[in-house]
Write a structure and sequence with these properties.
By secondary structure, this protein is mainly alpha-helical. The protein has one domain (about 1-55). It is built from three helices and no strands. Helix 1 (about 1-20) runs antiparallel to helix 2. The radius of gyration is 12 Å and the shape is elongated.
């Protein structure tokens, strides 16, 4: 379940970021890794996944 939440979140963030002026691929990769590690640590601690409404970025 957490994996699906992370994937949906990252897809929406990537779509929004790629359409922004000055998109930086390296920064986007770094941000994705940071988010993935954050979710992995929360999952390891048994935290529920965040509400999808909090993490959706409007495209």
């Amino acid at each position: 379940m957490l994996r699906a939440v992370v994937e949906r979140h990252l897809e929406k963030v990537a779509l929004a970021a790629k359409s922004a002026p000055g998109f930086d691929v390296d920064q986007a990769r770094s941000d994705d890794k940071r988010a993935l590690w954050t979710y992995a640590l929360l999952d390891a601690q048994g935290a529920p996944p965040p509400s999808s409404a909090r993490w959706i970025v409007s495209a």
